[in-house]
Amino acid sequence: MATDLTIKMGKLPLIEANFDEVKAELAELLRPYDSIISDVPSAKADRAKLNRIAKALDERKKAVKAEYLEPYSAFESRVKELQGMITDASAKIDAQIKAIEGDEKEAKRKRLEAFFDASNDTITLEFADIFNERWLNKTFDELKAQDEILEAIAQAKEDERVVILGLKIVISKSQIAKLKGFLEAQNIMYEVIDL
């Protein structure tokens, strides 16, 4: 495949140093510090000298590492460039997918709201009161969402009926002819008064 990265590496050179010689010198230099110190100013000077030696070794190690990794750093930079090209293209695709999915979700939400509006015969229930974000998931069946909408409407109607049953409505004699049948069908208590 043209996008398979073929890597050719030469054998890495062995890093040689006079480790044994330096180790022997350090052992000799450090031997006096195995005993208890008695001269604090002299010990402080020795400690500073040892810290300078350790720092010099660390700096030399870092210099060798940087030189040794120079070919890798150049390689890594080129690989990151290739990865960046891929990431940019992937991000463009992702943005388009999200836009399409967003449009699909909005269309589904509008269909469900229209279904609610067509089915809702309650006095108080609004679509926002029962809307569930998971209904918009691609894997959530629209018919199941409609069933949940119908269940919420039925529950709201029952709740409204319970409230209405607890009401006592006062109407005038002139209104009784218009409302009597409705009120009795709904089991709503009413009282007729003279106005």
Task: Explain how this protein is built.
This protein is mostly helical and 195 residues long. It has helices at residues 19-30, 40-119, 127-130, 142-165, 173-185; strands spanning 168-172, 189-193. The protein has a two-stranded parallel sheet with strand order 1-2. The model has no long low-confidence stretch (mean pLDDT 87). The chain has five helices and two strands; from the N terminus they run ααααβαβ. Helix 5 links the parallel strand 1 and strand 2 (189-193).
SSE order, one letter for each helix or strand: HHHHEHE
Distance between the termini: 93 Å
Q: What low-confidence regions span 5 or more consecutive residues with pLDDT below 50? A: none
β-strand amount:
5-15%
Q: Compute the gyration radius: what is it?
A: 42 Å
Binned, the helix content reads 55-70%
Overall geometric form: elongated
Structural class: mainly alpha
Average of the residue pLDDT scores: 87
How many beta-strand segments?
Answer: 2
Q: If strands are numbered along the chain, what order do they take across the biggest sheet? A: 1-2
Number of helices: 5
- What's the main sheet like? 2 strands, parallel
Short description:
The chain has 195 residues and is mostly helical. It is 68% helix and 5% strand. β1, α5 and β2 form a beta-alpha-beta unit.
Question: How do the helices and strands line up, and which of them pair or pack?
Answer:
Elements: H1 19-30, H2 40-119, H3 127-130, H4 142-165, E1 168-172, H5 173-185, E2 189-193
Parallel strand pairs: 1-2
Helix pairs in contact: 2-4
